[in-house]
Amino acid sequence: MKAINIKGKDYIEVNERLKHFRANFKDHSLTSEIIDKDDETIIIKATIADPSGRILAQGIAHEEKSSSYINKSSYVENCETSAWGRALGNFGIGIDTSVASYEEVSNAILKQEAQSNGAATKTKKRELIVLDIGDDNWDKVLEYVAQNKQLGLAAIAKQLSVKYELKAAVKKEINKHIKK
């Protein structure tokens, strides 16, 4: 199976584990069950069973809708993939160096970075630049907007608000440029 190296350690992607499972255990099943779900979080359990229905391995995963840009629209799918990866790892597939999958490790790194960035933002109160239409920073902002239109107004405004204070009129103007 193809491995991806993260910080000197090899991890197997869930799709590689899944391909191995499908090729070598054709009569076994991999099922998913939603344990808990609301508008912001989900917990899914994946189960591997033999042809008689005997449970051989399980994996559980939890995702938060707000934890990443991708999760805003796909937290259910990401959670299921993570649960599969855990179940397949617990079944013994792709665990030469770790039960954790590539996706789990990369998501954990992103969450840690976001948390540390959040902590840095809380401890270091930065003064925001007031962004006005046509000021010195306006062209830079419009260039950023043009390059990131596909993200939509909410994501662009969130990113810009790290550096700029955005008034309603500015957001309205940015939205016009997104729709162009």
Task: List the total number of helices.
Answer: 6
Q: What does the radius of gyration come to?
A: 22 Å
Give the DSSP E fraction (strand runs of 2 or more residues): 15-25%
Structural class call reads alpha+beta
| Range of helix content | 40-55%
Encode the helix/strand succession as letters.
EEHEEEHHEHHEH
Low-confidence stretches are 120-125
How many distinct folded domains? 2
Write down the overall mean pLDDT: 81
Please tell me what the overall shape is: elongated
Distance between the termini: 45 Å
Number of strands: 7
Major β-sheet profile: 3 strands, antiparallel
Within the largest sheet, what's the order of strands?
Answer: 3-4-5
